[in-house]
Structures are given as structure tokens and as C-alpha cells.
Amino acid sequence: MKTMKIWRIAFAMLAAFSHASCSSDDHWEKLLTNEQKETYAQNISGEYPGQYIIIYKNKDCKEWINEEGRRVTGAHSETFNGVQVDVSDNKMLHVFFQDFPVSLISKVMDADEELSHALAEATPQAITARYGFDYDTDYSHIKWAFIPNVMLLQLNYNDADHHIRVEFDNNSQYYTFTDEELKLPRAFRPLAENGIALQLKAIFDGPTLIQQFDSEGNYMHIVFKAD
Description:
Elements (H helix, E strand, L loop, with lengths): L1 H25 L7 H11 L1 E12 L4 E4 L5 E4 L1 E12 L6 E7 L12 H8 L4 E11 L6 E7 L2 E7 L2 E10 L5 E3 L1 H4 L6 H6 L1 E10 L2 E5 L6 E8 L1
Antiparallel strand pairs: 1-4, 1-13, 2-3, 4-5, 5-6, 6-7, 7-10, 8-9, 9-11, 11-12, 11-13
């Protein structure tokens, strides 16, 4: 009887293990290999000259009701030529949006007048961002996404140094390639020609939030397009 009981337990454990294995197979996920990631990163790396198209809304923007009865805001738009985006290889996995005109942020910063004046005098800086590859949900395309880093500025106003943090985001957006496209030299160029977008999210003075930016108030959208 004791032997029969042991065998029943063994069969029960085997059945449970088999069920767990099948369940695991149902949730199997295909992952990119390190070799694929290295190849893709190598092929998109390089310098891509182009322009920034910056669209922003502030209190000076006019609003009106269109023919459909919707409220419309006429945002400002400025173009900056002679800039470029640098994409690093697999060693760094970073994107550098070079020479971003920080002074333009003063146009949407209205929560702190002194900070706005200090930003207006700031020199261009690079917006840095981490990037990575992964399979899209259909496994037939590769998705590429970047996450902007915080920009740190030290500005002096009101007779004091202020450690300013400028946050950007990518609006949860990612871009797709095929495996064949990512195996071509300078594979990043077609994407950059269509435009890569990010937006201003918030500004902090140290840990203190000074102003947040969204569609309900002031905003700034930044689009880089390669020449």
C-alpha cells in the first residue's frame, strides 16, 4: 500500500510538471540575440546632420473656435538648421541630440520669471538618451525606442546658484524596422528623415518642481529631421 501511495504521488507530480511546462510554452517569448543587437547598433551608429522643428504653445498663442465648433490653438513653430543627431554603437547605446537650443525653453517657462530669464541666456546643450532594441509584438519587426535622460543645468540668478533639472520624454513612442532594414549601413537615416520626436516634460530646481508641461497648458514638441 505504501509503494502504491508513493507511485501515485510521483505520477501527480509528473502531471503537474507536464502541465506547467505546457503553460510555460503558451507564454514563450522570442528574444533578440546579443549578436543581433550588436549588428543593429553598429548599422544605425553614425552622425546624422539635419534640423530641429520645435513647436510650442505659450500664453501668446491665439485660440479660436473652428467650423466644427472645436477650440483650436495656433502654436508657434521655429526651425533650427545646422544641428545633428549622433547615434553610438553597442558599447554606449546612446543617442545625442546635439546643440538643442535651451534658450527657447524660456518661451514656455512662465512659472518663475527669473528662471525664464536665466534660461533665455543659456547656451545650446545636447539632449542625451538611452536606446534599445526588442521584437515588436508580431515578431516580424524590430522596435527601436529611446528614453531621454535628464538635462542638468547650473544657472545663477537671484544671487544664487540653482541646479536645474530639465526632463524630456518620448511620449511612449517607438519605431519599427525589419531585420533586413537594420542590416543595411546607416540604417538610422530613413527613420531620421521621417522625424524623431520628443517633448519637454518638466523643470525642477533641485527637488522642487517648478513647472510641468502638457497639452492642457504650455508645451514644447521637438522633432529632429535628417537632411
